[in-house]
Design brief:
heterodimer, A: two-stranded antiparallel sheet, B: mainly alpha, ABC transporter involved in vitamin B12 uptake, BtuC, 4 strands, 72% helix
């Protein structure tokens, strides 16, 4: 029982991290109808920027304080992500307005290649560390209930808390600010939003910047967990089944989808995996999402797809 | 002046339904085929065969198959690499486990197995549409990646899923030198291209296109979506499976599951989109572009004599590749095939545009 709970909690926490990536997908899909494959590349790019700035800035300015160095690096990385967002809107999406979904998907794949190459050219391609002071020691919970307690990674716990805070901040931003309202209007209906004077191109820059911010947070958390390296880019592939399971247009869906998949993945790996050879984590999420979609084609919370002739 | 159809009267139904109704087109295709079959084997150096021509032929076959699914039937698939892998490993099993199995039969049986898997993963397309389907097809990709790595039976108990074939023979003739391999692949490509061309202009191709353009409307006028979608998956994955088998047997010789990973799927999708969705010709253009581009980019520094370290060069290649993809999508979202048909239109009036 204790082992089961341990696996379950571990799964939920890694699910929270998948959600972080999925939220980036959902934000951009809602606001511009672009299925942004480059989200993973943005995570890598942001993490690389963060990792390198946290070396360069303290060295250049002679800052001893670690927290201040990290904050400055985070701010600098955020500026870089805004510039990336602006460039993407300017050079790519602005010119592909009204194209079919698959063309846009391919364009973001092109962006993925570009960002992967560009990030590593700019920031180097070794494995870097991000140290934001997340505690690494495991924690033992419920000592009194189970013998030995349940082992929980403190790092994962903090990451999950940060992710939850991020989600709360995002929903406040979307519900309570004027910009957030503009974003929701665009997500609802591009033309209507444009006709009441919401500038589409600026909204897209903002959305891509927000997605860049989410990517940065995801990059910092994943980067401090696994080290910043090329494989972070592949994380996008972990986010995809989460998005379709939760529904392409729903932020809460991304979170719940992430939790379900994270949990399912860990439990299946531990309990079913040994029976059929192990390593089933790679495809389990996808097959689960596929089976789920057979029942509900728009995902858990996606907008119902209505076909009209 | 040279390329125009006036004066060419169609006097029979056969002539009206010809694949290439214009005499100049027939002549051009004949010349291209003659060039590919006779001239190329005589003049091309060995490097060209191995690095460009054979991959180009096989990948354009795969792109052709994918184009039927994505371009004609409108079902986006990100799992093409999986169907190639199924074709390759199934053909391998037929070749190894059955003594004296003819090579061509093995390759075709590889295609048949890919068809079965393709139809299986195509069934969700009846319910799931658009981008949801695209992501769902990734399930096929990751599942086969895993299956060929972990299930030892598929790979004849070899470790890490790597297998190899040797001494390929067709009707007693060895397929050994690059020229023989080239001609072997070319024969497959010609046969399948003709089949595909005729399929897409027949009634089944029209059904696919109707489903692509709007599936609800298509089913209203009496097209069965189940039949149309599943046949598209079947035909597409058969061709892709054969291409996969050729890729393993003829091009690689020995391979492991990573040869058919998700990058291969993306590469094929790039070919189809850059070449032109819904165009047989476009598959060839796309394949040529995507096969040649990385080689050109890789060799660029050497040609200009710029010393550049390999890691940086590979990152720059990534960047330029990505930028060019985006550039092409912006300049010509309908692909190279559109440029081709625009060129043909212009040529009809040339040199007197009025």
């Amino acid at each position: 029982m204790a082992f089961f709970l341990e696996t379950l909690i571990g799964g939920l926490m890694s699910g929270m991290l998948y959600s972080l990536i999925a939220i980036g997908f959902v934000l951009i899909f809602k606001a511009s109808g672009v299925f942004n494959f480059a989200q993973g590349a943005m995570v890598l790019f942001a993490a690389l920027a963060m990792a390198r700035f946290s070396e360069w800035i303290p060295a250049a300015l002679g800052i001893e304080n670690k927290v201040l160095g990290n904050v400055l690096a985070f701010a600098a990385a955020m500026v870089v992500m805004v510039i990336v967002a602006w460039l993407i809107e300017r050079l790519v999406l602005g010119r592909l307005v009204n194209q079919e979904g698959i063309t846009l998907l391919m364009a973001t794949l092109g962006i993925t290649y570009f960002l992967d190459g560009f990030g590593q050219t700019l920031f180097g391609s070794q494995i870097y560390k991000i140290d934001v002071g997340l505690p690494k020691d495991p924690l033992f919970l419920f000592d009194s209930v189970f013998p030995g307690g349940i082992l929980v990674s403190q790092e994962d716990l903090y990451a999950a808390v940060i992710a939850a805070a991020l989600v709360a901040a995002l929903s406040l931003f979307f519900q309570k600010t004027a910009t957030g309202r503009a974003l929701r209007a665009v997500a609802d209906d591009h033309q209507a939003a444009q006709s009441i004077g919401i500038p589409l191109s600026r909204v897209w820059v903002i959305v891509w910047s927000v997605a860049g911010f989410v990517a940065l947070v995801a990059g910092v958390i994943w980067g401090s967990k696994l080290g910043v390296q090329f494989s972070l880019s592949v994380l996008a592939l972990k986010g995809l089944p989460v998005v379709i399971l939760g529904g392409l247009t729903s932020v809460p869906g991304a979170i719940i989808g992430g939790l379900i998949l994270g949990m399912g993945e860990k439990l299946s790996e531990v309990f079913i995996g040994p029976m059929i050879g192990g390593g089933i984590e790679i495809w389990f999420g996808y097959v689960l999402a596929l089976l789920f979609l057979l029942v509900r084609p728009q995902g858990l919370f996606g907008e119902k797809i209505i076909d009209r002739v | 002046m040279l390329y125009r159809e006036n004066g060419q009267f169609k006097t029979s139904y056969r002539a009206d339904q010809a694949v290439f109704p214009i005499a100049q087109d027939r002549l051009a295709i004949g010349l291209i085929l003659a060039f590919a079959i006779i001239v190329v084997p005589l003049v091309a150096p060995e490097y060209l065969f191995r690095a460009i021509l054979i991959p180009f032929l096989i990948l354009s076959l795969a792109a052709l198959g994918l184009n039927i699914l994505v371009g004609y039937c409108g079902q986006i698939s990100l799992g093409t690499g999986a169907f190639m892998a199924v074709g390759a490993y199934a053909a391998y099993n037929f070749q190894v486990r059955i003594d004296g199995m003819p090579l061509i039969v093995s390759l075709l049986m590889g295609g048949v197995c890919a068809t079965a898997v393709g139809v299986l993963f195509g069934i969700p397309s009846l319910r799931i549409k658009g981008l949801y389907l695209a992501v769902a097809t990734l399930a096929a990709q990751f599942f086969t990646d895993w299956a060929f790595l972990r299930i030892k039976w598929f790979t004849n108990d070899s470790s890490s899923g790597s297998v190899s074939v040797a001494d390929l023979k067709v009707l007693g003739l060895p397929i050994d030198t690059p020229v023989q391999k080239y001609l072997f692949c070319l024969a497959f490509l010609i046969v399948f291209a003709m089949l595909a061309k005729n399929l897409v202009r027949g009634h089944i191709g029209r059904e696919w296109m109707a489903i692509r353009d709007m599936d609800v409307a298509a089913s209203v006028i009496g097209i069965r979506p189940v039949y149309a979608k599943l046949t598209a998956f079947a035909v597409s994955s058969f061709i892709v499976g054969v291409a996969g088998a050729l890729w393993g047997f003829v091009h690689l010789g020995s391979w492991e599951p990573a040869a058919f990973n998700i990058d291969r799927s993306f590469q094929l999708l790039f070919m189809v989109i850059i070449g032109g969705l819904g165009s047989i010709m476009g598959s060839f253009f796309g394949a040529a572009f995507i096969v040649v581009l990385p080689i050109v980019l890789d060799n660029m520094p050497y040609w200009f004599g710029i010393p550049i370290d390999t890691a940086l060069a590979s990152h720059l290649t990534f960047m330029i590749f990505g930028a060019l993809i985006v550039f092409f999508l912006i300049v010509e979202p309908h692909g190279l095939a559109r440029l081709w048909s625009v060129g043909k239109e212009k040529l009809r009036l040339w040199p007197f545009p009025h």
